[in-house]
């Protein structure tokens, strides 16, 4: 799982491990946080390992996959959650480097990690790929054009993969989260905005990392053999399509 040292990633890693999966906790910089996630999983009786890699770099991703294969063999499930930095500003104030750079980095990371895991999945005729996205890909919010546009590209990429990989027994799905508490993105919202967004949500609160993890775990399971190319909106009913 990419970006698994905190927030949604850490919650998902813990849940998947509790359901019997061996989990790779990928991280970029925070070794201590990644090791704590692994320690928590192992203390609960699960299996996990932490591997550092910048998923925007194909060579780093390939090295990570080689480490995993040496330890555990092929990768059955890919959960791509790594947060690629982005600018928060209006289009009028934005440069092409900020907008195009975010889209390029988002897609480069998704391309690299997917390319790296596909050979083993294709060979065994089974695999699960889940990309973490955001409702901002469909419903704009001021200042979020870079993130929203990049995630919209990621979601369409996932649909094309679902069409291509379905005959090989590989499902590809998206979990699109609304505002999530206890994450880096959620921490950037002030309390007034959080309260206003919670008031717009039928269930009366913002999402928690565990809510997103539950959706990912469903898509990652063996029972999910027929749903592919779909998007799970984990937003408490804030938006309904």
Describe the protein in words.
- This protein is of the alpha/beta class and 241 residues long.
- The chain has a single domain, classed as NAD(P)-binding Rossmann-like Domain (Rossmann fold).
- 48% of the residues lie in helices and 15% in strands.
- It has helices spanning 7-18, 31-43, 58-72, 96-124, 145-165, 184-187, 191-199, 209-220; strands spanning 22-27, 47-52, 77-80, 127-134, 170-177, 231-234.
- Strand 3 (77-80), helix 4 and strand 4 (127-134) form a beta-alpha-beta unit.
- Helix 1 (7-18) packs across helix 8 (209-220).
- The radius of gyration is 17 Å and the shape is globular.
- It is an enzyme of class 1 (oxidoreductase).
- Belongs to the short-chain dehydrogenases/reductases (SDR) family.
- GO terms for molecular function: oxidoreductase activity.
- InterPro entries: NAD(P)-bd_dom_sf (IPR036291), SDR (IPR050259), SDR_fam (IPR002347).
What's the arrangement of strands in the largest beta sheet?
3-4-5-6
The secondary-structure element order is HEHEHEHEHEHHHE
| CATH H-tier superfamily | NAD(P)-binding Rossmann-like Domain
Q: Bin the helical content.
A: 40-55%
Keywords: Oxidoreductase
Organism: Streptomyces kebangsaanensis
EC number: 1.1.1.-
InterPro entries: NAD(P)-bd_dom_sf (IPR036291), SDR (IPR050259), SDR_fam (IPR002347)
């Amino acid at each position: 799982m990419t970006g698994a040292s905190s927030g949604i990633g850490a919650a998902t890693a813990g849940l998947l491990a509790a359901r019997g999966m061996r989990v790779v906790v990928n991280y970029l910089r925070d070794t201590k946080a990644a090791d704590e996630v692994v320690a928590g999983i192992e203390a609960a009786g699960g299996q996990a390992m932490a591997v550092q890699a910048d998923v925007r770099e194909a060579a780093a991703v390939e090295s990570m996959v080689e480490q995993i294969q040496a330890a555990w063999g092929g990768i059955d499930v890919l959960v791509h959650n790594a947060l690629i930095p982005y600018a928060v500003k209006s289009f009028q104030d934005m440069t092409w480097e900020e907008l195009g750079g975010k889209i390029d980095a988002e897609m480069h990371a998704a391309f690299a990690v997917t390319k790296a895991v596909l050979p083993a999945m294709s060979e065994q005729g089974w695999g699960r790929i889940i990309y973490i996205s955001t409702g901002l890909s469909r419903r704009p919010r001021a200042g979020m054009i870079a993130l929203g546009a990049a995630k919209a590209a990621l979601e369409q990429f996932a649909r094309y993969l679902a069409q291509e990989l379905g005959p090989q027994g590989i499902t590809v799905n998206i979990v699109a989260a609304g505002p999530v508490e206890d994450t880096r993105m959620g921490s950037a919202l002030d309390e007034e905005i959080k309260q206003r967004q919670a008031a717009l949500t039928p269930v009366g609160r913002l999402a928690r990392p565990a809510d997103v993890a539950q959706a990912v775990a469903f898509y990652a399971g063996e029972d999910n053999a027929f749903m592919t190319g779909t998007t799970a909106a984990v937003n408490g009913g804030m938006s309904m399509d």
